[in-house]
Amino acid sequence: MEVEIPVVVARRRRVTADIVRLWLIGVDARPLPSWTPGAHIDVLLPNGTERQYSLCGDPSDEEWSIMVLREPQGRGGSQYVHDAVWTGQKLKVRGPRNHFALDPAPRYRFLAGGIGITPILPMLREAEAAGAEWSLTYCGRSRQGMACAEELTVGHGGRVRLHVDSEQGVPDVAALLSDPRPGELLYACGPNSMLEAIERMGAHWPKGSIHFERFSAVTRDTTADTEFEVELASSGKVLTVPADRSILDVVRESGIQMLSSCQEGTCGTCETAVVSGQVDHRDAVLSKEEQEENEVMMVCVSRAACPRLVLDL
């Protein structure tokens, strides 16, 4: 089981009307694990909910920093953070975990939508420190709701472009993806509508050069789901997964403890190695290339595309 780390909120600041930033330190000044740009942590809130937030500070700092957007239509986690988590509050976290790591490259193109700026912020620092060329387009509905917008434009000048929907209309995604340069990697994080548009319009980019971080689940049609079998490699035990149940649920019911958090295929906590069989990937964590490799799966949402999967459990 992954270790739960006790932390305390060292500082809290309201960044915009709907975004608060928290700085976390280890309880009793215990050092926190190291992390790399793109990493996120699971925050175990006192009300019993778990949520994932990208680390947005500097990896060299002794404290961790996250930003939380209040989502009135969400499941309650963000509202709890806004209304009940204050300086001095003790929390527990897991991680960090990184499925959005920044690969070495001579140049980068960053696209961020709304709160999707959070994992991008430390990437900018790393790209800058590495001497790479980079540019950022940061999109938001209103200027007032864009975290760190002034800091970014003042600090980086022409390399940062703000696109404010209320002033400029919907961004032209095709234009944002135009003319990829040799060796250039694209990193994008934001709402699903933005990322789906990038997927549709980014076919002219070299394979493996576009990387996503999603904060919400991918919508899938489950009406044609059927039952299948899962074999546990460690024991040879075979479990039947009904059409309306997840692998995670069935494995847990068999008596095996499995860590999970989002149960929507967005956090990567339940990642499991595939020994054999073909997976119907339904997560929002793995890239297309990683899904094609068929080496791991997220058992909270993904299913079998064959009669039997053998998993490293």
- Percent helix: 10-25%
Number of helix segments?
8
Q: What CATH architecture of the largest domain would you give?
A: 3-Layer(aba) Sandwich
Q: How do the SSEs run, as a string of H and E?
A: EEEEEHEEHEHEHHEHEEEHEEHEEE
CATH level-four homologous superfamily name of the largest domain: Nucleotide-binding domain of ferredoxin-NADP reductase (FNR) module
Q: How confident overall, as mean pLDDT? A: 92
Q: What profile does the largest beta sheet have?
A: 6 strands, antiparallel
Segments where pLDDT lies below 50 for 5+ residues? none
Proportion of beta-strand residues: 25-35%
User: How many E-type strands?
Assistant: 18
Estimate nothing, just give the exact number of structural domains.
3
Q: Which secondary-structure class do the elements indicate? A: alpha/beta
Radius of gyration: 20 Å
What is the strand arrangement across the widest sheet?
Answer: 4-3-6-1-2-5
CATH class of the largest domain: Alpha Beta
Shape: globular
Q: Give the N-to-C terminal Cα separation.
A: 13 Å
CATH topology (level 3) name of the largest domain: Rossmann fold
Characterise the protein shown here.
This protein is an alpha/beta fold and 313 residues long. The protein folds into three domains: 5-95, Elongation Factor Tu (Ef-tu), domain 3; 107-213, Rossmann fold (3-Layer(aba) Sandwich); 228-311, Ubiquitin-like (UB roll) (Roll). Helix content is 19%, strand content 33%. The chain is built from eight helices and 18 strands. It has helices at residues 77-84, 117-129, 149-156, 165-168, 173-176, 192-201, 247-253, 288-293; strands spanning 5-16, 19-26, 40-44, 50-54, 64-69, 90-97, 107-113, 133-140, 160-164, 184-190, 210-214, 228-232, 238-241, 271-276, 279-280, 296-298, 303-304, 308-311. The protein has a six-stranded antiparallel β-sheet with strand order 4-3-6-1-2-5. The chain has a five-stranded parallel β-sheet with strand order 9-8-7-10-11, sandwiched between helices. The mean pLDDT is 92. GO terms for molecular function: 2 iron, 2 sulfur cluster binding; metal ion binding; oxidoreductase activity. Residues 228-313 form the 2Fe-2S ferredoxin-type domain. Keywords: 2Fe-2S, Flavoprotein, Iron, Iron-sulfur, Metal-binding, Oxidoreductase. Its cofactor is FAD. InterPro entries: 2Fe-2S_ferredoxin-like_sf (IPR036010), 2Fe-2S_ferredoxin-type (IPR001041), 2Fe2S_fd_BS (IPR006058), Beta-grasp_dom_sf (IPR012675), FAD-bd_FR_type (IPR017927), FNR_nucleotide-bd (IPR039261), MRET (IPR050415), Riboflavin_synthase-like_b-brl (IPR017938).
